[in-house]
Amino acid sequence: MSIQQRTALITGASAGIGATFARFLAAQGYDLLLVARRVERLNDLATELKQQYGIQTYVFAADLTDKQAPSAIMAFAKERGVVIDMLINNAGLSGKTAFADTPWQELANEIQLMITAVTELAHRVIPDMKQQGWGRIINLSSLAAFSPPGASLLYTGIKSYVLNISESLDMELKPHGIHVTALCPGFTHSEFHDVMGTRDAANHLPAILWQQPEAVVKEGYEAVMKGKPVCVPGIVNKVIASSMRPIPESARYFLGKTFNPFKN
């Protein structure tokens, strides 16, 4: 199968890292299924990329805090005969208030968006990937996955889950030609901090800690194509991650794969 015949599903594709992934993959010749809540932005992006690169683009407006969204996305793809070769699980958010002060529905939405939907979409695309013997999945984790838990936040725990499940899936699926990578960026220039209301605090951080989304996306893509289960983009972030984990990630991956209870 040529690269031009492959299709990538990107969640949270209307801005930031998701939109950057869309532009990057379009330039590589991938057709795109773009998913986000803001359909106007998706339509504009889809039109831009179709005209610029001659690719096929599909737009599906969905809120991944809705439990029915993953199945609806896959039904939309199936109706159009679209097989997902690459999945970019990018959509995400972070809580703005302390755990005890946050209404349960907001916490449930955070879990649904960044744990359940991520896991379900991966589960739903894997059968076709296994059948064709090729697939790539990038799950957006975070540098926060390597850090100690943050007071009142689900975010570090959620991103640790994304990191761990990505490694576990890669161990299982690599023999089938499927690579799974946890992409763990640090501070990245995007709308994330504006949406979360943390822009003022973020602006006070040293410039050396920041990356452009294009650099994050390029390194993440290269990692998944090479079969690297974890990608921490940027030298500064790599140093930070290494300083926070007593056991190197490569050693943790080896141990997890070696002592796999389901290994034949």
Q: Could you give me the name of the CATH homologous superfamily?
A: NAD(P)-binding Rossmann-like Domain
User: What is the name of the CATH class?
Assistant: Alpha Beta
Note the gap between the termini. 30 Å
Q: H/E element string?
A: EHEHEHEHEHEEHHEHEHH
Structural class by sheet pairing and helices: alpha/beta
Mean pLDDT across residues? 90
Hey, roughly how much beta strand do the residues contain?
5-15%
Q: What shape does the CA trace take? A: globular
Describe what this molecule looks like in 3D:
By secondary structure, the protein is an alpha/beta fold. The protein has a single domain (3-258), classed as 3-Layer(aba) Sandwich (Rossmann fold). It contains ten helices and nine strands. The protein has helices spanning 16-27, 39-53, 69-79, 104-132, 155-173, 192-196, 199-203, 213-226, 235-244, 249-258; strands at residues 7-11, 31-36, 57-61, 86-89, 135-140, 178-183, 187-188, 210-211, 230-231. The strands form two sheets. A seven-stranded parallel beta sheet has the order 3-2-1-4-5-6-9, with helices on both faces. A two-stranded parallel sheet has the order 7-8. Helix 1 packs across helix 8 (213-226). It is globular. The chain starts with 6 loop residues before the first strand and ends in a 6-residue tail after the last helix. Pfam families: adh_short (PF00106). GO terms for molecular function: oxidoreductase activity. InterPro entries: NAD(P)-bd_dom_sf (IPR036291), SDR_fam (IPR002347). Belongs to the short-chain dehydrogenases/reductases (SDR) family.
